[in-house]
Amino acid sequence: MAKKNQVRNIGIPGINPPSDTCNDKYCPFHGKISIRGRLFEGVVVSDKPTRTVVVKWERRVYFPKYERFEKRFTKVNAHAPKCLHIKKDDKVIIGECRPLSKTKKFVVLAKVGENERT
Question: Are 61 and 91 contacting, i.e. CB atoms less than 8 angstroms apart?
């Protein structure tokens, strides 16, 4: 575990560490979890589970037969450290990490902004 009030450099340019501190062992800035693999940007659709958020993003799939694109959505569970103060309808960047539980293989890295839901 990192020392108190010590912030780790996660090695991803453009992602700044949060100003708050936490003692979460799964926090990429204050714990020992490492980020590897892909990064995704999505919207938090649920924050009901403890220290977990459900993030959803859109992807487009091409169908050669119809020469058209179709919208599809991906939803994943991600760990939300307390120091980031993530809530529903926030736009976030998540990064891939080792499996933290049966369904959690991502961790929230930064809050990009708040989404305007209509």
Answer: no
Residue boundaries of the structural domains of the chain: 39-113
For residue 87, how many other CB atoms are within 10 A of its CB? Answer: 12
What is the C-alpha to C-alpha distance for residues 35 and 97, in angstroms, rounded to an integer?
5
CA-derived radius of gyration, the chain: 16
CATH number 2.40.50.1000 given to 39-113: yes
55-73 pLDDT tens trace: 999 999 999 999 999 999 9
Give the whole-angstrom CA distance, residue 32 versus residue 79: 14
Among the listed residues 86, 106, 87, the one whose alpha carbon sits nearest the alpha carbon of residue 98: 106
Question: What are 72-92's pLDDT values in tens digits?
Answer: 999 999 999 998 889 999 999
The candidate with the shortest Cα–Cα distance to 79, out of 14, 30, 19, is 30
Residue 19 pLDDT: 85
